[in-house]
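$ fold --in a.seq
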Amino acid sequence: MPATAATTAIAERPGFLIRRLHQIHVAIFAEECHGEVITPVQYSVMSAVAECKDADQTVLAHAVGLDRTNMAAVLDRLAKRGLIRRRVAPRDRRMKLASVTPAGEALMKRVAEAVDRAHARTVEALPEDERAAFIAALKTLVRANNALGRAPLKMG
């Protein structure tokens, strides 16, 4: 009988399981946001742009755990779609500051419930009383290992 992930040692490895859960979440996110062209990473970046108000790509990269190169690419795609605006920082012309446009705000409002459903569906197989503990465990692992990532989060 051929081996499957469920019958091999990788099924017990946290890295494999976390990656697989991420793949599943991305699929759920796309299904819930059907008709809207936005990825989980783009939504996270837009959320950070909205929250950080006129932040540069370094601040935003730390806010969502992306390296600066990938952050620049995501910001460029969002700007080309008219969802964010980028402007040169008045105090440092080397920096570009990002802000959400009215079109970006409208998209965020349109998908807000779908995004909430996607996150809920990702953990719905867990009993309700275990979900907070699951999130707490993930946060503990991220905090403990944050410095090891290519793009560490700035955590409060």
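$ fold --in b.seq
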Amino acid sequence: RVASGPYVCVAANAAGERESRGARVSVLDRLPTGQREAAPRDLLAVRLHLDNGTALPTAAVWLRWRMLTSAPTPDGYTVLYRRLLPSSTFWVQHDAGKELSTIIPALRRGYKYEFKVRPYAGGTQGLESNSRHLWIPEEVPSAAPQRVTVGQAETGNGTVVVSWEPPPPEAHNGVIRGYKVWGDGVGGWG
């Protein structure tokens, strides 16, 4: 039985503790005989297992999961996902409806993502599944560096200065890790 009153949550590690703001719980009277208790109790019985995902050629991921318990079917499932590097604590939510699989579109190539699933019924969320990590494969950038300029250094010793701007972010198709500059040899540099 849950008791009414204030509750707090404490996060602790070797360096100390941090306490959350308080939350108040109120216990309501029992439902009249014949009325079914709302979904929250049923949701606690739902246990999900997120299977391995599949990266699709379109920078999307196909995920599937299964129920590990024979609990009543929830109203639907929410997939939560976030990019791991660079580190992001912001979880994006994708409503998968009643299906036990979904496609998460428009992910960024060259990044690893974390995925998990949780059931819902009405406005209540159930317990989260295990999490899976999946890397979205890179492709060749779809645009070259822009505004490339070549000039001679002011020192007059034959040094060439090359500058450019990176391709637009939507054309990276992964993480650009470097640039190569070379000449045709006619100008004496390479």
